[in-house]
Amino acid sequence: MVSLRVYILTRVLLTIPMVFILLSLVFFVMRILPGDPVIAIVGMKASPEHIERLRHELGLDKPLWRQYIDYIAMIMRGDLGRSMIWGKRPVSTEIWDRFPATLELTICAFTVSVLIGLVTGVFASTKPGTKADVGLRLFSIVAYSLFIPLLGMLLQFTLGVKLKLLPVAGRKSPLVQIDRITGLYLLDSLLTLNLVGFVDALRYLLLPSITLGVVLSGVYTRLVRSSMLEVLREDFIRALRARGIPEGQILLRHALKNAFIPVLTMMGLQFSLLLAGAILTETTFSWPGMGTFLLERIEYRDYTTVQGTIVFYALLVAMVSLIVDIIYAYIDPRIRY
Amino acid sequence: MRLIDPLARAIRRYWRVKRVDLALTLTGAIIVAWIIAMAALAPVVAPYDPYVSVDDVLLPPSREHLMGTDNLGRDVFSRILYGSRTVMAVVLASTMLSMGVGTLVGLVSGYFGGLVDRVLSLVMDSIYAFPGLILAIAVAAMLGPGVSNTVVSISIVYIPTYFRMIRGQVLSVKSQLYVEAATALGAPHKVIMLKYILPNVIPVLPVVFSMNVADAVLTEAGLSFLGLGVPAPTPDWGFDLRNGQRNLLAGYWWGSTFPGFMIVLLAVGFSLLGEGLNELISPERR
Amino acid sequence: MPPLLDVRGLRVYYMLGDEAVKAVDGVSLKVEKGEVLGLVGESGSGKSTLGLAIVRLVPHPGRILEGSVLFKGRDLLKLPEQELSKVRGGEIGMVFQDPLTSLDPLMRVGEQLVETIMAHSQLTKEEAKEKAVKYLELVGISAERFYDYPHQFSGGMRQRAMIAMAISTSPSLLIADEPTTALDVIVQSQIMELFQSLREKLGLSVILITHDISVAMEVADKIAVMYAGHLVECAPSETLYDSPLHPYTQGLLKAVPNIELKDMKLVYIPGTPPDLANPPPGCRFHPRCPRAMDVCRREEPPEVEVGETTVKCHLYR
Amino acid sequence: YQARKAPAEKEVIVIGTTDRVTDLDPASAYDFFTWEVLSNIAEGFFKYEPMTLELKPALAESYEVQEGGKVWVLKLRKGLKFRDGTELTAEVVKWSIERVARIEGDPAWFVLDFVDKVEVVDKYTVKIVLQQPVAFFKAVLAVPTYFPISPKSYPADEISPDNTAGGIGPYYIERFVRDVELVLKANPNYYGEKPRTKTIIIKFYKDATALRLALEGGEIDVAWRTLNPSDIKDLAKNPDFTVVEGQGAYIRYIVLNGNIEPFNNKLVRQALAAALDRKKITEGVFLGTVSPLYSLVPAGMWSHIDAFKEKYGEGPNYELAKKLLAQAGYSETNKLKVELWYTPAHYGTTEADVAAAIKESWEKTGMIEVEIKSAEWSTYLELTRKKGLPITLYGWYPDYIDPDNFLYPFLHTDSNRWLGKPYSDPEMDKLLEEAQVAPDKATRTRLYEQVQRKLAEDAPIIPFLQGKLYVVCKKNVKGIVIDPYMLLRYWLIYKE
Amino acid sequence: MELLRVENLVKYFPLEKSFLERLLTRSRRYVRAVDGVSFSIERGEVFTLAGETGCGKTTTGRLILRLIDPTSGRIVFDGEDITDLRGEELRRIRRKMQPVFQDPYASLNPRMKVGEAVKHPLEIHGIAYGSEAKQIAMEFLEKVGLTPAEKFYSLYPRDLSGGQRQRVAIARAIVTKPMFIVADEAVSMIDVSLKASILELLMQLKREMGLTYLFITHELAVAKYISTRIAVMYLGKIVELGPAHRVFESPLHPYTKALMAAVPVPNPRRRKEKVKLKGEVPTAPVDIPPGCRFHPRCPYATEECRREEPQLAEAEPEHLVACHKAMEL
Ligand SMILES: Nc1ncnc2c1ncn2[C@@H]1O[C@H](COP(=O)(O)OP(=O)(O)OP(=O)(O)O)[C@@H](O)[C@H]1O
Ligand SMILES: Nc1ncnc2c1ncn2[C@@H]1O[C@H](COP(=O)(O)OP(=O)(O)OP(=O)(O)O)[C@@H](O)[C@H]1O
Ligand SMILES: [Mg+2]
Ligand SMILES: [Mg+2]
User: Domain A98-289 carries which CATH code?
Assistant: First the structure.
């Protein structure tokens, strides 16, 4: 029986190969296939000598294995390098600029989806086979299949353009100022006691997070429902009933907690779904986050930035699954690592 | 008769116990079948050539153009019909590819175990944990647009799904007594894999497959929507949605709404099928 | 004095669409105060269903179609849910077969015990905890294991904990469904001893459900034998052992291996138990019965009293 | 809690765009929008008078051209100060120009290709010595790359991408959040005419749809580049908005790679030029928000002639195309098979439709079969450059406003490597070189007309459209000026 | 004549899960499932291994069948050391020894027809193919009482009852005419009323085909009916071994005594005095107590038992026991 600390350490170490694998994949695929950041940025008018010089500066004239080793060495030092285009800004700065937007969006969407999922899932599981249950099952299937851009467009069109209820694009209105502390506008405006900013940021957040949240909620509805049903069929629930424990207590204190374990596991995996969905949401809502950024940089073959972003994504996913596992280990006493 | 009879019996049994699931499955199957028929019959049914302009641009739906015309004067209805071919071709090809590779590798990896299995699992888990669409975007952008490239990028995303599923199943089947019995009989590895493990693993595939196809439909649409999928002017729902979206706010809703609706419909069809099958296949509780 | 528990004509079916699994089909049964009733029968004969039906806990497709369950004079089948849940766990305790899956894996054993006690009394948390520790010690678990999780207990300890929970509310009847089937023989005998001592200390009535007639013979005062949803014979243990009346009981006793006997001959009952969705007409045992008559194929046998024995067989009409 | 007071409505104008700021550094910026921002927060020695293409003095009070155009002497205005308090002197100018050369950013060629050295004559006089006389150097000097900046605020040999210091201009940057917003405030120390609006906020959007929604949602006052054609048409009908239209100097063209079969055959190139249906693109894809173009030199630029129209008619001239194809040996049964490449994102989402329209118009001859292919921008460029793609679609924004910039980079043997060297002709080279140094405009006009006629004859490049620029703004927004300079002048905009 | 001999058989299962965990934790720990077991089986006998859950009975069986590799020790079968056989040679041996498992639901491939399941071994070993194999398979189906064989041949396992499935498993085991059968809890999951019929079938086949059985069970009452010799295991070791009637009549080891005494008897008048044992067998034998591994539960344990591990030794002819105090009790 290994202690929790050792387990966490193991998990942290395990993320290394994962990041490494993805990084290598992206590194080689990107370089083997045509497309060159130097040409992409100066392409139209520069002379071949100029291009060669730039390639040299960026180290792109070295043999591939050399570039790879250099890059890995750099990553090991915790440095993501600098962008290869435009301002050659440090990749970490670029990410730091955009990530809070994505984080804010994903957190809100996540909250929306989990709330919808829990409520509908628990409701459906207490009434299996009824019309309401079938309806919610249908909802979960349709919700997940709603193509994010389509749903986004419909919401923009109805709530934004026709009814003028909510703003449709961007993170805040131009005239409102929010001082950056964390880059999460909601949090920052609260920290600076800026109520106007908070309300404004919230209004801008609503449509994108509802779009993303609703689409992902289908997964949770289904999952919560099925794992609740699973748990409700278990012997210990019957045993609790046989002991005369009130039904509400059984449902909330025992069944939900047990059903939450598979849901939790799923949340870790779902996080990557959330990130993927965020790309489409960001594109639809002009959200200045990581997704739109990555798309832009892929087009320009900004090797370091794309690699850095992928590494960052991988670390993020790994970290979230680590957190999930730790919570998991806390909730479930059977996990003794 | 030999086939129909058990089928009818199965349906009757399910009708008794799992009415809802059966209804879901059938609805899904009908939607999917309908779109497949659309794809198959597109050349016969489509009133116009989907590639060329046949009328004025941006005409609203009318008797001549059931779903109006797009910004190049092409018939949207015809493009929807032909678009189903693109989606079906790309999505089925890529999921089949993932299924083939994932199943094979998962089977071998899970059966033999050892270092290769560890490494493969690590690689597959890494890909699996990574956001699928982002991976597809990265690969598709690097490979460049094109049908086969799209197929490859989508399939890479889903190989781990099959790998993990199959490997997990193989591990559980491998520990079953009947596999041990087969080993004790002296059956060679190949025979054990093909006669004892594979047949017991395969039943999960249809469920995973249709769930996965539903997902792939959305991924394909996402890629096309971002301009990384099948290149124009091939009719493609995701692309047409994007294309039509440009004119949506000007009131030309038909150019994007129809393709968008079709994407959702197809994804729903496959999800219903998958969800229903999943419930039908899962053993009845006693 | 009326019996503590009086089950009359109970019928419980599992509804699978338009098919019904007739798991308990017209069973009547009495349990006196302080008595241990052994309910035996082979797998699938409807023992658990009967046990659950007494407290109206038959799982989903199952339905109690008719009959009554008179407990201390009240019909449990007609009690409103609220009051019933006072009876469950309060006046009737239950212990199930698989002690691991019968405990909430995410909650400390002690807390589960406290929860049970608090659900049936006005005690504060502290008082409940004190009482919980007392009961844990009563079943032979030391107080320091109070904060352990179920998975940290061995099989026998889990079963002891389940028993502690069942008796912590001072019930007058305990229904134990295969409490030792998942356990080794040595542990089984320890648990059985625990039952015996508790019964002496607390004056409990017990319904012991088991597929192993040997276990029932060791502890029960009275034994009821079920076959395919019917209660075929019910008699005091010794009477049943000495002169089983129903052909099934007779066959069963001969088929049970006995470590004490020198005579090395086992006899088995030919055929297999029927499918309860389509049970044979008449007596459900007739296809396997060596003494089957014509009437057995046609008519369901009545319950006949022969001395202390109640038997459901045409032979004794 | 404290509510942050927003500036009064009237003093603020919010402009939305789908463009992005790359590097806020003259030594590195080389794109439309960053140049626009730079032109509003900094100035060069000359600047274009609105609505004319006249260059009038800005930071330079006056100038003198010596040694037959080889030496330029600039006299600076006195007493101008940067935001950080540094005074604008000859030293600063020299430092700024040399910094561009030293950093060798993308636009460094504006300096490196022309300038030999920069000398300080006195505190307010700078001498720029060219490698050789250049007829259009004044236009070059007007580009943002030459904008003086303060040595105190910019690192000497490093690009400073997020630098908000700027130069001396009507506005300064108050706040810049990349990809989100850029807030400009009127520069109180500006020497020239005061800006009409105190605060300009630029909001960045990801796509045209979002931009339009933001306009309609009232979040922005002005929607600038680039709305969808259909939205422009649609918004024009809306009484709440004004659509300002202006001729742009932005052009699009088809490159036929003469190194590749069958495009080494002039007849084939001519046939493709003849069969092109420009209307299909301008009216069909762009709904009339662009105009057809018949020369590489855009209409409105001096020396422009409709060379392709003269030669092939307005088009599509299928009769002529068929004839030419028949001469080249093709027929209905032996079709000309060509591969047409486009890049899906770089030129906007309409690009696929452009390709589709071209394909359709060529295939109407019945003798051509077009296969459409596409590649991501950087791949596209690299393939064009290295492999030489058969037919590609490109677009061009001028670097400086002179016909040379629309002809030399495409047609001169030494400078069209980036297009995969599709064309090389000694006679053409000679004409272009002559025109570059010819001192007077009349001679240059004559030479450029010759070049354009030859271009139409040889048809290595087929221009097909010229962009128009549209600004859609709220009814009460006035002062929007769009001219061939194209960059929006924020200081002229105001709200009624 | 001896058919099988195992010498000092040991099987440890490593406890760690992942290789990283192995890197991180210093001591490697093992489940000592089988910890030095020796015995031999004569031709034609029914040798029973008994003991509580987790004592290593199944593992011993699997080791003998060479389904897993022993950590150490030797297995001699039919005069041949089969401990290290691989590939073809191992397959040759497999023809001669076959298992019958506990769970008739799990030991048959659900996607293989009954007939095929029985026919398949013939094809694997190249004994017969096609219709000839089918003929033989039918013959064996009849032999195990599945008549009419025609009908059963094309059924799937799910269409059969538990007893019938176990018959199929037995048919599959004997179709290659082996000489040795390892029956691991072969009747534990069969209904009481049918148990005897399967036992009878096994005995009948033994007579007809001259089989030798290793019979693994935790049900002592069942063991008593068929065994010629019996070995009782505790935490991976044999604690007592001898002729069945001797062990049942006068067990020597305290554990065996407790085990025998705990077996319930279907006689309400025979409520026996039981030997009281503390605790249970640990579910996973990892931390095995020093000295006699039974001493923490033994009512008679002394200082010696805590220190020194007793060896299996002959207490009376043919009857071996591993207890320091076997003689005194
Ligand atoms: N939830 C259920 N749905 C359908 N049928 C059920 C269900 N539960 C039990 N049955 C059926 O009812 C019959 C009686 O089951 P029950 O569990 O009462 O038997 P049992 O005597 O307790 O058997 P065991 O010894 O296996 O526990 C069996 O045929 C069983 O298959
Ligand atoms: N493959 C394995 N990996 C790890 N541990 C194992 C493995 N197989 C068995 N064990 C462990 O070895 C010990 C002995 O197991 P085994 O199955 O041989 O016992 P058994 O006597 O057959 O018990 P039962 O009566 O429950 O069948 C157990 O603690 C078990 O958990
Ligand atoms: Mg039961
Ligand atoms: Mg075992």
Answer: 1.10.3720.10
